[in-house]
Amino acid sequence: YITANPALARMLGYDSPEDLLAGVTDLNRQIYVVEGRRAEFKDLVKRMGSVTAFESEIRTKAGRTIWVSENGHAVQDDSGKLIFYEGTIEDITERKMAEAALHKAEEKYRNIFDNISEGIYQTTPEGQYITANPALARMLGYDSPEDLTVRITDLNRHFYVQPRRRAEFKELIGRNGTVTGFESEIYSEDGSTMWISENAHGVQDQDGRLLYYEGTTEDITARKRAEEALRRAEEKFRSIFENAVEGIYQTTPDGKILNVNPALARILGYGSAEEMVAGISDIPHQYYVQPGLREYFSKLIVDKGQVFGLEYQAYRKDGSKIWVSDNARAVYSEDEPRLYFEGFITDITERKLAEEKIERQLRRLASLHAIDTAISSSLELHFTLRVLLEQVTSRLGLDAADVLLLDPDTLLLEFAAGSGFRTDAISQPHLPLDQDQAGRAVLERQVVLIPNLMENDALLGRAPTLPKERFVAYCGVPLISKGRVKGVLEIFQRSPLLMDREWLDFLETLAGQTALAIDDAALFQDLQHSNIELTLAYDATIEGWSRALDLRDRETEGHTKRVTETTLRLARALGLNEADLVHIRRGALLHDIGKMGIPDAILSKPGPLSEKEQAMMREHPKMAYEMLLPITFLRPALDIPYCHHEKWAGDGYPRGLKGEEIPMAARIFAVVDVWDALRSDRPYRKRWSESRVRKHLQSQAGRYFDPRIVEAFLDLPGT
After folding, report:
1. Helix (H, G, I), strand (E, B) or coil at 314
2. How far is CA 279 from the centre of its chain?
3. Among 58, 433, 593, 678, which residue's CB has the most CB atoms within a 10 Å radius?
4. CA 64, 70, 72: angle at the middle one, nearest 5?
5. Are 451 and 496 in contact, with CB atoms under 8 Å apart?
């Protein structure tokens, strides 16, 4: 070093420029720039004569490493001999740290995108994939997302969606802007068909033109096949029912059998029709219909003359019950004046059992749908668990149920949600795995069933806390997702617990959905955290740019921070919402970003600028627009950097906007910017007094500024 200003000395940790010049002398013993980068710097200056924004890591006096950006050039004598280098250095350590944090956040988001189990995509309106995540590629049978997007190119030859369904999909998005749960049959890579459910919306440009679709895809092939199997089973049952041989009978109004056919005898468990007639003759001792129902049946026929499809439970010879459908009419005998009934009975026991089964399945499908809806509509775990437990208790006819979550760090079970309990004793926190049957379900990764808690209460570590609940039976199901136990779904019954394989299968399905909800909630929390980190990194970068501008223009140091804070206060006073304030803050921080393209000689000139220099200075809003427009998340913040030099009367720059053509954010900022500038010292003038500035603003209302904003600003506390 030959010369250095105080700022550089402070930057490198020295008390003064003299301390710096004396401290960095022995270059072999204390070099402050990495040797390789110094060589690159010298080579660039030698070839180009100067360097701009040359970034490198340097060491301070204390040995700490910082990042700097240098602008420098070589100074030569008249003979062309190199005399020395001179230039400026800017500390960009904060910006570099922000860039590193941003890169890390982007990597984390990409990792989530690549590893999520749900298919994510972007397609052209014609259906050509633009981007896809690995899950969607695997779903469609491709080795990688690249393979998927490259190989589905000739849509006329290799179309993975039926054109009719594609047209319906496009029509729905065109009408509603989005589709939810759109189901269609598609072709995978090997030509086989599969069913998917899509949630998607159209993405448009600023002019409303459709650019592409983006959304998520779920493979629902297994569910569709299950529904188809159920439909075929119902059709088969209906065919059997419609072609069954009915049992024909004649009875007296009080139910005495007069005559039956063999089919009815078989239906009611008799060896022959004769045996049935003889067997049901002593009415008080063996009645195949309950007396109350028989009386109702008789009165109905007498009143109306006939009945059709009356369903009831009848007793077989062995005392068991079956369901029958009865169709009968009243008949008056011609041979002797008496009334009797005749009709036919169909054994509908199989149908009734099937209907009950179907009804149970439909109720359970409704439960699964309700739980799926809860999972998809809300990623708030406790809400989802409450919905799930309500479905568990109502659909399975249970008294109470709860969910315990496993803390992977402490290996303790924590109560998360419960339903049907009379007390809060079940919500005991911090349950060790070795002290309760719930821990046993976790450790053994199997369903734990205790039919009688009275005889086996040693297995229930919480038994002493539950005397008022009067539970009789218990079942604990481990919640397993991707091979990892997430917790336990517990059910409690105050009567004997009756279950079959179907019941247990449904319970395990609910447990699987519970584990999925827990996983989704955790994934969402991670994604939220990543988005927060990404936003913080963006804001840190913007603030770094802002500080860099202030450091470059020493005469306006602190100006950006002041005008940003005051602009936000004024915007709130004018009633702008918080969502707009985010973009206003960013725009205020970057209002002079375009001056990065203005030469130092003009920017720091102590006297008035020439016409040519003024023309160049007036280019900085346009430069700001061109710099920030490619950055998508900063586009809403462009109003201030691009338009804060427009004037209410229309004689501003760069576009000559007039009145309310000027964006509101720019009109607000213009008042604050001029206020702060006039109250600050400049190389070409001294600061104005507050009263003089207030008069100036009032005089420019309606010419330079929006009058309403000037009035609101002057009424703002602290101005």
Report:
1. strand
2. 69
3. 593
4. 135
5. yes
Q: Which residues contact 109 (CB under 8 A, 6 or more apart)?
A: 527, 530, 531, 534
Q: 314: Cβ–Cβ under 8 A, 6 or more apart, which residues?
A: 268, 288, 289, 321, 322, 323, 324, 345
Ordered alpha helix ranges (H), 305-345 = none
- The per-residue pLDDT for range 575-616, each reduced to its tens digit, is 999 889 989 988 988 888 888 888 877 877 777 888 888 889
Write the burial class of residue 58 (CB in 10 Å: 0-12 exposed, 13-18 middle, 19+ buried).
buried
What is the C-alpha to C-alpha distance for residues 72 and 439, in angstroms, rounded to an integer?
69
Helix (H) or strand (E) holding 497: none
DSSP symbols for 505-544: HHHHHHHHHHHHHHHHHHHHHHHHHHHHHHHHHHHHHHHH
DSSP helix/strand/coil, 353: helix
Q: Is 287 exposed, middle or buried (0-12, 13-18, 19+ CB in 10 A)?
A: middle
Which CA distances in Å does 309 have to 34, 324, 325, 331, 460?
96, 9, 5, 18, 51
Whether 136 contacts 148, CB under 8 Å: yes
130 pLDDT higher than 90: no
217: closest CA among 200, 202, 201? 200
Angle at 68 between CA 62 and CA 69, to 5 degrees: 160
Start-to-end CA span in the chain (Å):
46
Q: Distance between CA 695 and CA 678 in Å, rounded? A: 12
Q: How far apart are CA 420 and CA 392, in angstroms?
A: 11
pLDDT tens digit sequence for 28-77: 434 566 667 788 888 888 888 899 999 988 888 888 889 999 999 999 88
| pTM as predicted | 0.36
Alpha carbon of 417 to those of 384, 386, 420, 421: distances in Å?
Answer: 10, 6, 11, 11
- Which of 227, 221, 261, 228 lies closest to 245 in space, CA to CA? 261
Q: What is the mean pLDDT of the chain?
A: 81
Tell me the HSE value of 129 on the side-chain side, using a 13 A CA sphere: 26
